[in-house]
Amino acid sequence: xxxxxxxxxxxxxxxxxxxxxxxxxxxxxxxxxxxxxxxxxxxxxxxxxxxxxxxxxxxxxxxxxxxxxxxxxxxxxxxxxxxxxxxxxxxxxxxxxxxxxxxxxxxxxxxxxxxxxxxxxxxxxxxxxxxxxxxxxxxxxxxxxxxxxxxxxxxxxxxxxxxxxxxxxxxxxxxxxxxxxxxxxxxxxxxxxxxxxxxxxxxxxxxxxxxxxxxxxxxxxxxxxxxxxxxxxxxxxxxxxxxxxxxxxxxxxxxxxxxxxxxxxxxxxxxxxxxxxxxxxxxxxxxxxxxxxxxxxxxxxxxxxxxxxxxxxxxxxxxxxxxxxxxxxxxxxxxxxxxxxxxxxxxxxxxxxxxxxxxxxxxxxxxxxxxxxxxxxxxxxxxxxxxxxxxxxxxxxxxxxxxxxxxxxxxxxxxxxxxxxxxxxxxxxxxxxxxxxxxxxxxxxxxxxxxxxxxxxxxxxxxxxxxxxxxxxxxxxxxxxxxxxxxxxxxxxxxxxxxxxxxxxxxxxxxxxxxxx
Length: 517
Known about the structure:
The chain is an alpha/beta fold. The chain has a domain at 17-266 and 438-517: Metallo-beta-lactamase domain (Metallo-beta-lactamase, Chain A, 4-Layer Sandwich). Helix content is 37%, strand content 15%. The protein has 14 helices and 16 strands. The strands form two sheets. Strands 1-14-13-12-11-10-9-16 form an eight-stranded mixed β-sheet. β6 (77-81), α2 (94-98) and β7 (104-108) form a beta-alpha-beta unit. The longest helix has 27 residues, at 239-265.
């Protein structure tokens, strides 16, 4: 394997075609550095004392990573590092462990609490990710390969003549870090660089840290790195190109931060702030800052949550009536379901899907058995799904659309076609995605990526050592629901029955695909 050429390396990020290839054969992208890319980027570096593995990846791809690394080098795995504890970065070591290797596993100290929170909220994370990815078979991992060495602020490790500096940096998570190898001018950013707008507004996940993210980006820019290796997407080569991507990303966030903070300090309501704040239009067009996963409006909400709590500024919502009670009152005042549905249809025809969605929610909550209401809801969210590029928004709109489809006795749609908002986003015909879910050719829905399986059990060890000083420490490395009837109210369906229906659909699709093959 040689270090060049590689379709995964760019020196002109402002002209890069996005999205990047979802997967490529493992190959060297820089001297002595192997890239394994199946959705997430995993890197293996040769050193005098063995291999340094950065972000082992998903549990489902552990065998693929191990095979690729061992085809490239037979050197022992000396150290593995998690840039953060997300399942696409820190769950892929099992195949190495099964082969008898016992590397040092380095992570920022909050990674331990991150894994513990995953245990506590296992069911929640399973359902969140089913909704976000559109994969009804997804099961959140419940086995972890724990760090053996943690640090608080920074850690220096010597791997022969290569010095590795691990630096804590909140951003997408509170356990994030980046890795800097000054002798090689290699910078590994994890998900601080994603080749999408920063993932710091996710509406279904825990707190993100935009302010700290900006600080981390500025710190990394000051290093003067010649190479930038992101958690996802293209490797960036060239000091100027690296600097540009880091500082553009920092400015993208800072523009949003400044607007939100100014308006909050002026006493504006969350509603006013949400609709007033916009991302910088020029930066938002850069290939590496397109809102293909998160959305700038979600970042606005995240900042308001971080600084101002969860109350939305509407006193009626502090201790509210149920949505169903509110909906019945509103629909009754407007002349009944038929009148609201008719108005919703007019709004949908006019392209006002945002307002039409509110009406669809009112009628289906006021009378879930009304077929016309469910048809409106289905069609509204199908249209919203076409309009947005954000994978997070797509997941929620798809789930709402499928709720209506199931209520109508229709099969749910597991994956949406690519959105029509910006042709640049889908140059490859593949929708952006997370966690092993994607689309193939336009208009054909199918499951892609590796099959999901439960990772093997790994017992939780007591970390062997911990570096927790405020300054920099050095570490010398050692060795079917029925269709609705207009005249009858349909009984509610349990969550279990709905899940069973969705799983049955998914299994039928798998069987049909197998027959075709």
